[in-house]
């Protein structure tokens, strides 16, 4: 009887620990990002094709750019990432601090812009990094 009670108690404790671990893990992922969750869904975001490229500096080090089309009248261009994505890699700061550059390329009433994405983020995130980076504009 005592051993049966002990097994049930042990099973219950393991279940509680697993539940606590899952809650802590999911809340930690949300805290990793400094992004505004309210701005995650941007229905008017328009990706360029190709969605990204790499340019090389004189030392042959790649720098990645993610492309978007925005209206010519867009003033405030703010990059952001999906919730739970840690964009604060090495000394580059979070995604809100990354550079957004307007190009001299226009199509209809839109202008081509790009976000410089730190190569350390590309290396740490891996394939598909361009799908978690977005651009909000006003």
Can you describe this structure?
The protein has one domain. Helices cover 28% and strands 34% of the residues. The chain is built from 2 helices and 6 strands. A 4-stranded antiparallel sheet has the order 1-2-5-4. A two-stranded antiparallel ribbon has the order 3-6. A hairpin with a 2-residue loop joins strand 4 (100-107) and strand 5 (110-117). The chain starts with a helix and ends with a strand. Mean pLDDT is 80; it is low at 23-41.
Supply the key terms.
138 residues, alpha+beta, four-stranded antiparallel beta sheet, two-stranded antiparallel ribbon, 34% strand, elongated
Shape: elongated
Structural class: alpha+beta
What's the structural domain tally?
1
Radius of gyration from CA coordinates: 22 Å
Low-confidence stretches: 23-41
pLDDT averaged residue by residue: 80
Order of SSEs: HEEEEEHE
- Helix content estimate: 25-40%
What's the number of helices?
A: 2
Oligomeric composition of the shown chains:
single chain
- Amino-to-carboxy terminus distance: 69 Å
Brief summary of the model shown:
By secondary structure, the chain is of the alpha+beta class.
Layout: helices, strands, pairs:
Elements: H1 2-32, E1 46-56, E2 62-71, E3 77-81, E4 100-107, E5 110-117, H2 119-125, E6 133-137
Antiparallel strand pairs: 1-2, 2-5, 3-6, 4-5
């Amino acid at each position: 009887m005592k051993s049966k009670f002990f097994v049930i108690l042990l099973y219950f404790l393991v279940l509680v620990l697993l539940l606590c671990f899952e809650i802590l893990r999911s809340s930690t992922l949300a805290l990793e990002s400094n992004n505004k969750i309210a701005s995650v869904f941007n229905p008017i975001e328009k990706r360029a094709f190709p969605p990204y490229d790499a340019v090389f500096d004189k030392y042959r080090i790649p720098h990645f750019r993610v492309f978007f089309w925005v209206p010519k009248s867009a003033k405030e261009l703010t990059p952001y990432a999906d919730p739970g994505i840690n964009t604060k890699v090495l000394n580059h700061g979070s995604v809100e601090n990354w550079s957004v550059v307007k190009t001299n390329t226009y199509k209809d009433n839109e202008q081509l812009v790009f976000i410089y994405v730190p190569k350390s983020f590309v290396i740490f995130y891996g394939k598909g990094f361009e799908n978690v980076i977005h651009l909000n504009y006003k």
